Amino acid sequence: MALDCRHVSTQVYALADAKDDPLAPLVKEALDVIDHALDTHGLDGVSLSFNGGKDCTVLLHLYAGALARRLGPSETLQPIPAIYIAVPSPFPMLEEFIDDAAEKYNLDLFLCRPPSERVESVVTPLPPPLNANGVVDDDYVEAPKAVGKAKGAEGMKQALEIYKDKFPDIEAILIGTRRTDPHGATLSHRNMTDPGWPRFERVNPIINWDYAHVWAFLRKLDVPYCGLYDLGYTSLGSTYNTFPNPALLVESPSPPVTKAETSERAYRPAHELTDGSLERAGRGKPVLVA
């Protein structure tokens, strides 16, 4: 069922103007950046990078609101240009959410799965260490081991080359990058792609948001998000290198002893993570295998 984007517009702009709400200046800043990009490149020259994660879900909701505000009384929102660059072995639940969001927000979503020379191995759980009594230590936190190699930057470049060839009128791409993300510290609201890459302006409306702001926004406006976040995941990537955040592990009355007990451990939802610096603690570092 499609969302009422005029209602979304009313929501987000009211929040931007709200007094004494810590989100207000960040929402206003993001909407101003989006509006400036639209004024610069036009409705047909701007696309949205959407991979189903929490950050780009915030951005999608803001963008839909900004677009709806530009509609005349009798106009309807046209399909929103967007690109989804898939990672190797994405979570099925994530892809289901992406499909649902594309339908709700009327995305004209271009799916790109760039070719890859390497295929990652599966994530395997580390066996729990046993103490001298032959049981799992009380302070043990289970974390899967990620193995293999992902072609992150190279795959992204290939995908953008494909997108530029297919949609040459797209000049700018809205991205949900935040300053605490890898490579986000030196970015501003608007940056051109690096030399040697397909030429796009990268627009980062929520660059100054932090982890807590993202969840405050999603929950305050009741924005639909991927269900993996309710299972303890705090940063989503490939199934090869992503697992529930150990910081959200629910402590059990007694330590697990059997393999079955270990695999059934529960995690609190992502919005309950109070230390944003641990956001990526559920992401494993790929390790090359011979």
From TrEMBL:
Gene3D superfamilies annotated for this entry? HUPs (3.40.50.620)
The pathway it acts in is:
Cofactor biosynthesis; FAD biosynthesis; FAD from FMN: step 1/1
- GO MF annotation terms: ATP binding; FMN adenylyltransferase activity
| Residue numbers spanned by region Disordered | 252-290
Q: What is its EC number?
A: 2.7.7.2
Which reaction is the catalytic activity of this chain? FMN + ATP + H(+) = FAD + diphosphate
Q: Which InterPro entries match?
A: PAPS_reduct_dom, Rossmann-like_a/b/a_fold
Q: Does the keyword Transferase apply?
A: yes
SUPFAM superfamilies recorded = Adenine nucleotide alpha hydrolases-like
Highest taxon of source: Eukaryota
Q: Pfam families annotated for this entry?
A: PAPS_reduct (PF01507)
A Gene Ontology biological process annotation? Answer: FAD biosynthetic process
Which residue range or ranges hold the Phosphoadenosine phosphosulphate reductase domain? 47-242
The answer to whether UniProt assigns keyword Oxidoreductase to this entry is: no
For this UniProt record, the keywords arranged alphabetically read as follows: ATP-binding, FAD, Flavoprotein, FMN, Nucleotide-binding, Nucleotidyltransferase, Transferase
Question: Where do Basic and acidic residues bias regions lie?
Answer: 261-282
The record's annotation in PANTHER family points to:
FAD SYNTHASE, FAD SYNTHETASE-RELATED FMN ADENYLYLTRANSFERASE
Q: What is this protein called?
A: FAD synthase
* Protein's organism: Mycena chlorophos
Please name the taxonomic classification of the source. Answer: Eukaryota, Fungi, Dikarya, Basidiomycota, Agaricomycotina
